[in-house]
């Protein structure tokens, strides 16, 4: 069981325990343990009992339960709670905005025991009659249910990457496959993947595909040209079977969107399909990279392909959290690791004081961190740590410290973390005031979205980006694979007018720096070049940008 799976187990345990009237102190303890497990990077169950106990820190009381899970794969107390809770009620606990207390009211007082029943109640305007709900809550629940249903069967690119590579490895070593290649949304580097697709040249298409040596990959059907599977019963996997003569054509067609094929007037019968390069040459076009085959503006940006951003272009790591707030590793650990990873600078951006839930820094802690940064920098050569902060954009649009302290930060990333359900007018007022603040250097995750989990607050992207341009504010492409915010579809607009993008990992631990790979993936889809990327600047150029306030 991974740490993520372990945290999900305890999340459910905490919710069900509270739903059935559990002690509030224990409920809070379970929540604290979940927070700890989500941050902890080393696999818990690869450690022995003594190591687990050592790392539990303030959560040692949960050691018996952790040992039980390690030995049995489950928690008996949780199983008993699940047995006495209707499945539909358990599903209600997964609806955003419905905590155990509200679910208890819906279930025990109103008789709503499933998501379908809740959806009907919302649509019939019945929740407004229930104490503690009202019109606003009802509308939000309705919106959240519809959003959740629309995301079923969809996955983050980063989530399916290890699965894709595992299947590809199996195909490469398979005796029934001559050649195979990943295709579709995955090859286009789309941030969301609906299914994994492979083009496969099989030695004999009628071979038995039911025993492919990939754990959790279950055969579904074979229709003569495609083989369909389910991975872990949720992710669709499709093999497009073909002959050697048709391999390149099928790879090209399944990689491209229908819009791209239409845009380039593609006709398989009229092209040389020896390779994808030859297909484009037949159409009097230069080769178009797989990630750009969206059917948008690729024909107008052919000259940019040779200089698209790559991970190796990144020289610094901007927007990172340490143990000063809610990060897993110390400032020195984060800094040393960045240097050893080949980066030239690190911008620390722990949470500001209003983010109490994330250990936001009070002014005295800020000064303490400043002192530590000064001491660290004395020991580095060719590497520098910058004094930054991720300042909450408060509800009125102001930043989160008094001017005297704000003026001492070298880089301020301004981000919204609270009251995310605001309408567009309120969002605009709040963001514009923060953008116009003379201390704001970077606008963090501009919409606050969490892909497949939470839609961003509504904004007019062009309006907000124009304000950033006018105020010389860099826009963050938050590279965490669950955010990827700003949406890549707006990057080309912003950059074409002279804007600068910063591909930031929002790292809460050392390995989080690698998330910049996902940011680079989608940045390439938006034709971003190193010249228009803030953290592609070397140390000297970045230092000049910092000082040019």
Task: Explain what you see.
This protein is α/β, with parallel strands linked by helices and 549 residues long. It has 3 domains: 3-150, no CATH class; 156-306, 2-Layer Sandwich (Beta Polymerase, domain 2); 311-547, Alpha-Beta Barrel (TIM Barrel), CATH 3.20.20.140. 40% of the residues lie in helices and 13% in strands. It has 22 helices and 14 strands. It has helices at 3-19, 24-39, 49-55, 63-72, 76-83, 87-92, 100-110, 115-123, 134-150, 157-172, 184-187, 247-255, 258-263, 276-282, 331-340, 363-378, 403-406, 424-436, 461-470, 491-496, 516-525, 539-547; strands at residues 155-156, 177-183, 192-193, 195-202, 217-222, 226-231, 235-242, 316-320, 345-348, 384-392, 411-415, 442-443, 474-478, 501-504. The protein has a 7-stranded parallel beta sheet. Helix 1 packs across helix 7 (100-110) and helix 8 crosses helix 9 (134-150). The radius of gyration is 26 Å and the shape is globular. The two termini are 48 Å apart. 37% of the residues are buried.
């Amino acid at each position: 069981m991974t740490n993520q799976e372990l945290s999900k187990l305890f999340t459910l345990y905490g919710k069900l325990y509270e739903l059935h009237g559990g002690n509030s102190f224990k409920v809070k303890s379970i929540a604290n343990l979940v927070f700890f497990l989500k941050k902890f990077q080393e696999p818990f169950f690869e450690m022995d009992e003594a190591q687990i106990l050592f790392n539990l820190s303030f959560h040692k009381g949960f050691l018996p339960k952790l040992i039980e899970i390690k030995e049995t794969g489950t928690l008996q107390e949780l199983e008993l709670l699940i047995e006495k809770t209707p499945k539909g009620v358990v599903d209600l606990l997964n609806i955003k905005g419905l905590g155990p207390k509200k679910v208890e009211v819906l279930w025990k007082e109103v008789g709503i025991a499933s998501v379908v029943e809740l959806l009907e109640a919302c649509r019939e305007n019945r929740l407004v009659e229930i104490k503690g709900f009202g019109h606003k809550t009802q509308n939000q629940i309705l919106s959240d249910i519809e959003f959740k249903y629309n995301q079923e069967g969809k996955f983050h690119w980063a989530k399916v990457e290890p699965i894709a590579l595992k299947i590809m490895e199996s195909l490469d070593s398979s005796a029934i496959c001559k050649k195979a290649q990943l295709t579709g949304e995955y090859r286009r580097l789309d941030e969301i993947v609906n299914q994994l697709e492979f083009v496969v040249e099989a030695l004999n298409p009628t071979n038995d595909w039911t025993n492919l040596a990939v754990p959790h990959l279950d055969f579904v059907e074979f229709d003569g040209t495609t083989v369909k599977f389910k991975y872990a019963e949720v992710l669709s996997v499709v093999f497009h079977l073909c002959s050697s003569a048709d391999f390149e054509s099928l790879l090209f067609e399944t990689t491209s969107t229908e819009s791209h094929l239409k845009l380039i007037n593609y006709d398989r019968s009229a092209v040389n399909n020896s390779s994808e390069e030859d297909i484009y040459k037949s159409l009097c076009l230069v080769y178009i990279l797989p990630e750009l085959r969206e059917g948008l503006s690729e024909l107008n940006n052919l000259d940019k392909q040779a200089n698209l951003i790559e991970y190796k272009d990144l020289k610094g790591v901007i927007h990172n959290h340490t143990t000063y707030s809610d990060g897993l590793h110390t400032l020195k650990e984060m800094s040393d690791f960045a240097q050893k990873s080949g980066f030239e600078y690190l911008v620390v951006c722990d949470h500001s004081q209003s983010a109490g839930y994330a250990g936001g820094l009070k002014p005295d802690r800020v000064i303490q961190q400043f002192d530590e940064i000064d001491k660290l920098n004395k020991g580095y050569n060719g590497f520098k740590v910058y004094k930054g902060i991720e300042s909450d954009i408060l509800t009125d649009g102001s930043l989160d410290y008094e001017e005297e302290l704000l003026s001492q930060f070298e880089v301020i990333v301004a981000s919204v973390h609270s009251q995310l359900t605001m309408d567009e007018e309120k969002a605009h007022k709040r963001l514009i005031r923060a953008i116009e603040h003379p201390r704001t250097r970077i606008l963090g995750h501009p919409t606050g979205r969490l892909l497949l989990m939470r839609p961003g607050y509504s904004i007019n992207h062009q309006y907000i980006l124009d304000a950033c341009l006018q105020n010389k504010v860099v826009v963050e492409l938050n590279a965490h694979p669950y955010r990827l915010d700003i949406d890549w579809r707006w990057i080309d607009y912003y950059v074409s007018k002279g804007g600068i993008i910063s591909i930031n990992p929002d790292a809460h631990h050392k390995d989080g720096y690698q998330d910049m790979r996902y940011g680079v993936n989608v940045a390439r889809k938006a034709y971003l070049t190193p010249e228009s990327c803030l953290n592609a600047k070397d140390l000297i150029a970045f230092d000049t940008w910092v000082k040019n306030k």
